[in-house]
Every structure is written in C-alpha cells, then in structure tokens.
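Objective 1.3, modelling of assemblies. Example input:
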Amino acid sequence: MKSSYLLLLAFSTIATAYQTLDPLVLPRPLILEYPPGDDQIFHSDVGKEEVQLRCASWRFAGEANNLAPWKTVPADCGAYVKDYMTGKAYRFDLEMVADEAAAYARSVSLAGDCMDAWVFDVDETLLSNLPYYADHGYGLEVFSSHEFDKWVDKAMAPAIQSSLKLYEEILRLGFKIFLLTGRTEGQKIVTMENLKKVGFRDWKQLILRGVNDHGRTATMYKSEKRSEIVANGYRILGNSGDQWSDLLGSSMGNRSFKLPNPMYYIP
Amino acid sequence: MKSSYLLLLAFSTIATAYQTLDPLVLPRPLILEYPPGDDQIFHSDVGKEEVQLRCASWRFAGEANNLAPWKTVPADCGAYVKDYMTGKAYRFDLEMVADEAAAYARSVSLAGDCMDAWVFDVDETLLSNLPYYADHGYGLEVFSSHEFDKWVDKAMAPAIQSSLKLYEEILRLGFKIFLLTGRTEGQKIVTMENLKKVGFRDWKQLILRGVNDHGRTATMYKSEKRSEIVANGYRILGNSGDQWSDLLGSSMGNRSFKLPNPMYYIP
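Predicted structure (tokens):
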C-alpha cells in the first residue's frame, strides 16, 4: 500500500532530500510530508534510524565547527543527545581527546624555564555539569544563567576523569597550568572549592570574567586573556576546551584540543 | 565462568581503561588482554560494540582536528570506515555541511563588484574518489601517489551530489569560484575534463600545484594561494574542504566548512 508519512524533523537536509531545494538554517523544526513511496523504504524503523543518523551528522557538524550559532539542541535530537551523554560514546570521545593531548604533551620538549603553559577551560572540560543538564533536558532547554549559577554555587560538579588524568600528567611534565573560564569573578571561591574538592590542584592562575568582560564573546575574552599570558612571557603549548570559542582567536597556542559537547554552544 | 579475552585494538584509550595509565600515540595496533571479568560484560558482542564506539571516537577526533598526523586508518576501524563511507552516514554528513554552507552563503550580502569569492578544494570536496578507495581498503592501505595518479588520469571521479548542488547555488548567488587543489599542473587537463563531465562549470580559476609547490605542506601551499587570491582584490567569504589543511593557515576567509573524510589525512 502506498502512503505518506508525517515526521517532525529538525533537519533542512531531509527537506532538501525529499521536498525542496531550499535548505534552511538549523536548528529549526520542520513538519515534513514524505512523498508517496514504498512502505519498506519509509516504515517507522527506517525513520528512526534516519533521525539517529541525522542527529549524528548534526553533532559531527558541531564538532567540526560547521554549524551556525545555535541556542538549543534540535528538538528531535533530544533523545539522541541524552543517550550520547549518558552512554559510553561521550566517555570514549573524552578519553580519545585526552590521550591525544597527553601523547602530544609528552612529545614536546619543555624549555626548563617554567614558562611552558597549558590552558584549560573549566566547564565541560575539567568539571562536568552533566547533573545540571540532566535536570534541564541535556541542552533541549534554553540556557538559563540564573538557574545555572545556582548549580555553580553548590560546587558539586564532578571531575571529568580523563581530563583529571591528563591534568595530572601535564603537571608532572612540568607545564604551568592556566584555567581560563567564562565563569565570573564572583564565582571564584566556589569554583576553586569545586575544583580542589574533585582533585584539581597547583594551577598557576585561575582567570575569570571580570566586570569589563561581560557582554563580550568568549572568543574575544579568551583571546585577550591568552594574549596577556603570552605577554607575561609564557609559551602556550597546549589548549583544551569543549567550545571552539575556547580555542579560536589570537594567541591560540601550538596545538588545541576540542573536547566533545553537543549540549550547548558558546560564541 | 570467568575468562579473559584477547582483542586486537588500535586504541590507546582501551589500554588506559583496562591495562595501564600510559596512553600511546594513534594509530597503533595493540594486543590487549582484558582483565578477568563477568562474561556478560566482556562477551564478543560488547567487544564489537566497543570497537564501533572507539572507531567513532577516532573519526570524531579527526573531524575536530584533534589527531596527530596519521598515515592509514587504524587497522581495527577498516570495517567501520567502509560501512560509514558506503552507507547513509557519510552522505548525510555531506548534506548537513552543504546545507550549512548554503544557508551561510545566502545570508551574506555580496558587494556587487564581482570580487566576492568562494574557495573549493577538489578531491573529496567536489569530486569523490570513493571508487578508487573502494579498491584500496578505504584508507587501510598506505596512500600510493603512483596508483592514485593513474585513477586521476581516467577522469572518472563522480561528483559529490550535495557539493554540486551547493556549487550551483554559490554560482547563482554571484560568488566567484576558485578551485584550489593539491593535484599538480600536469593533471590540469584531466581534472578540468573530469569536473566538467560531472557538471561543475564556470569557475574563475583552477589552481594546481606548480613545480615550486612540490614538497610543501598543503597548509603552506594553500595559504599562499589564498593570499594571492586576496592580493588580487578578492574577498574570500567561504572555503570548503575535507582536510583541515584546506582550511587553516593564512587568508582563511570569513567562514570555513569541513567536509567529512575518515579515509586519509593530508598535512
């Protein structure tokens, strides 16, 4: 029997494949009517598999910095992102990046003057806010700084274990560690408390957003702070962050490591 | 029954998870002995699922530019990469990137002086060499320029359909298109023949490696050529390529789009 199917999908690509040549900006829910076709091609299992693959494409596009700025996870990828974040895949991805970073760190020769530096972002790089995002749809909800700040004040974020192991190795190798976070100066005490409680130690400097940094993009703010680190004589050999805005801009350092994060985007 | 399992794996991450705290550089085959454990945890299906997830992590790490230079796909990811390249996932990933690029291209205002430019790489960006790589292990074999050149001379590479559609839209919007390829001047005629045969047309310039460009990295060669484009008065608004060496360096343009490619790496 020939029939058509309605499917709520967030992907312009499906629109272009089945309906029109006019792609749309993501994320944007679409109601699509599949053209009449063979039931075996369009039955619901294939629909589900396609959604999974489209969501994987969306996640890939984010990791490769191909996406335009976005505010929430596409509606139809909520379950996909939750599964990713709570299953093995996220942990394996984190471990892979940490291992690459550690291999690189061991491969470089330090000058021995204590001026070789590694920059780490904090949230979703050293500390995991997964308990918070579990209560807020894993990125399906629009970010609320008010709600998030309440979570930060609890100083209860667990360490990302692969990052903690990397951090220890970076320290052992003799790097000076700079923590460069989008958190504000007002959150300094709780941030230090949280970091120490879960095992991070001996950083050279924890840099937070001051009053003059509010309203600036993370790319601008972090570039300027990295430039100050360099101006103080340090050589940034490595930089780890879960956002491209942690890694791009000026004073980028010799090599960057992008940790996975499909839950939110910071420009 | 308690038992241990031998598994040939290419991942340092598995080594770190189960055996040692000393991560290793990828790609590097390891023989791992799983610790004694519950059969339900370590039976062969879980092993297979873990390999799939580790290979996905490896692919992700490549797309996010986290990997050190590599010469071949990790031995245990051969089947994974083949499945990815020949199934829907690769096509969906390509479509997602093309749609994002098209949405961006439509969003920018062209100056109307015919100096707004878009740069495209050729191999695995406009043309697909999948028929060649299907005969050469989808990246498992070490790249042979001698063998590959014979394939190029046939001028038989099909178009990547989503890229052809994007290309047409970019043209329609009024961009000047520059093709910037790692192919050599000696391959100019067959490359033009191949491109035209599958539907690409009206490029402003096809730039190939000259005798002075041999032995230089793609990043250096392509940066210099982009700088020449800019020196000639063009504004590079978009840049599409499947390698990070197509996109990074100088004169990077306003926005870049990284197409997926887990089969090979060009520095």
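Chain B touches chain A at residues 11-13, 16-17, 21, 23-26, 50, 53-54, 56-58, 60-61, 63-68, 88-89, 92-93, 95-104, 107, 165, 256-258, 260 (CB under 8 Å).
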